[in-house]
């Protein structure tokens, strides 16, 4: 890559490469921030929601720091995303089970109440 200096001090036009001027050395890629590993949320979802899916979330959560500090940034981000996904799956399954349980309790309660009234 060549840079054309429009008006140098002596009045002539000169050409120089970006490597010679040091322009390429001054441009650096910013360091990415370590992704959240969701470990506390994965533990809470395991304890209070759905055990099997919560365990999967814990496994992915623990992989985030290992991948990050070994230099595998993409795998760390991928594990963080999967940990978040499995945490929400655990919560969703628990909420779904509670909704079904409450619906069954209400329906069966109404059926037994209507059968006793006849």
Characterize the structure shown.
With 118 residues, the protein is mainly alpha-helical. It folds into two domains: 1-30, no CATH class; 31-117. Helix content is 70%, strand content 7%. The chain is built from five helices and two strands, in the order E-E-H-H-H-H-H. It has helices spanning 18-21, 23-26, 39-48, 51-70, 73-117, and strands at 2-5, 14-17. It has a two-stranded antiparallel sheet. Strand 1 (2-5) and strand 2 (14-17) form a beta hairpin. The longest helix has 45 residues, at 73-117. 19% of the residues are buried. Mean pLDDT is 83; it is low at 22-28.
In a nutshell, what does this entry contain?
The chain has two domains: 30 residues, no CATH class; 87 residues. It has five helices and two strands; from the N terminus they run ββααααα.
